[in-house]
């Protein structure tokens, strides 16, 4: 048997309480290990035998170490035996049960198809270089949390007072549209990073993702669920919205003192930031508004639970599932009402998007015939 070796494609983020967050740059998944578990993982250099590993980690039995290493291998923390194979291929080879194999195979196919429409490329892993104790970090945090709404309101009043909003809005050229759009997205993710790091979360990765053909900046934030304060968790989710409001307010103020292309740029910068605010407040999809709502309702899986409950109501008599039945019995009347309302709105919203998409395609094809 080949000696186990740690995967070099991991990003380590130590916590003050001794836990270690481990981010896999390939799978984009994050795991939390205790101090003793990480000690075992850290000495797996591919050269040590199980007996040598046991000597260095004698607080575990040899059996426990073997079991732990097996778990590390399953979740991709170790190098695979064949470097030409992906972890998915190796997992598939180890599957014995035909039904489980088929489920995994179709799940993998679905993920590959989905990745065509949602591509991610990590660029930075800035967690260790971000120091929340620096003065600039504190100033930025204070500005995002406490100054965003006042600046936005001031900017809005200035814009209304000078009539710049109604008189200056014209269709943007590409050299205005693209920078204004990218800057708006950058500030949104930047706010999440600043507020998350300041409140004890970690920034595993920052990169570029492609949703259909639209380029976006994304940040992978880990450890939010370990933050005890609900207010802090809500602030992390709301940070992007707050800074977008602040940038929109600054843009409105600058339109009062500029003309021509500069005026058009700042006005569209404000518009794009407001669009992002409205977009992220859509709580029926998993954007910032959804995560704020899950915190307020104390339900991390609001969407999944709502759809499961709706499916039970509709199909319960035909397809009874023990888990859904147990969930139905344990739910309070308040939870049932929330699940019915959210689930119904979610299905209706997604249905409207689908119908609109199909209708537009039909209209486009009809116009070309």
From TrEMBL:
The chain crosses the membrane at residues 139-162, 174-195, 207-227, 233-258, 265-285, 340-365. Keywords: Membrane, Transmembrane, Transmembrane helix. This is M50 family metallopeptidase. It comes from Vallitalea guaymasensis.
């Amino acid at each position: 048997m080949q000696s186990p070796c740690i995967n070099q494609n991991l990003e380590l983020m130590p916590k003050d309480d001794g836990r270690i967050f481990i981010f896999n740059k390939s799978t984009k998944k994050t795991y939390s290990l205790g101090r003793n578990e990480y000690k075992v993982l850290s000495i797996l250099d591919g050269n040590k035998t199980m007996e040598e590993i046991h000597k260095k980690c004698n607080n575990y039995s040899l059996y426990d170490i073997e079991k732990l290493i097996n778990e590390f291998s399953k979740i991709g923390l170790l190098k695979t035996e064949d470097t030409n194979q992906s972890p998915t291929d190796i997992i598939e080879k180890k599957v014995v049960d035909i039904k489980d194999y088929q489920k995994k195979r179709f799940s993998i196919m679905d993920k590959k198809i989905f990745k065509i429409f949602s591509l991610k490329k990590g660029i930075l892993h800035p967690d260790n270089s971000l120091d929340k104790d620096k003065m600039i970090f504190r100033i930025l945090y204070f500005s995002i949390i406490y100054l965003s709404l006042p600046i936005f309101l001031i900017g809005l009043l200035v814009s209304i007072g000078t009539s710049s909003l109604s008189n200056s809005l014209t269709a943007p050229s590409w050299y205005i549209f693209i920078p204004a759009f990218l800057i708006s997205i950058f500030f949104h993710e930047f706010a999440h990073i600043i507020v998350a790091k300041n409140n004890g979360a970690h920034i595993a990765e920052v990169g570029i993702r492609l949703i259909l053909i639209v380029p976006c900046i994304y940040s992978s934030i880990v450890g939010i669920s370990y933050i005890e304060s609900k207010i802090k968790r809500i602030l992390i989710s709301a940070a992007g919205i707050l800074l977008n409001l602040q940038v929109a307010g600054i843009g409105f103020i600058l339109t009062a003192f500029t003309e021509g292309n500069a005026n058009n740029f700042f006005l569209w910068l404000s518009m794009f930031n407001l669009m992002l605010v409205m977009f992220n407040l859509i709580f029926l999809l998993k954007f910032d508004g959804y995560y704020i709502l899950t915190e307020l309702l104390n339900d991390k899986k609001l969407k999944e639970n709502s759809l499961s409950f709706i499916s039970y109501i509709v199909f319960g008599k035909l397809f009874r599932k023990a888990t859904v039945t147990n969930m139905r019995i344990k739910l309070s009347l308040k939870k049932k009402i929330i699940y019915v309302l959210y689930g119904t709105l979610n299905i209706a919203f997604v249905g409207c998007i689908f119908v609109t998409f199909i209708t537009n395609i039909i209209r486009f094809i009809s116009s070309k015939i």
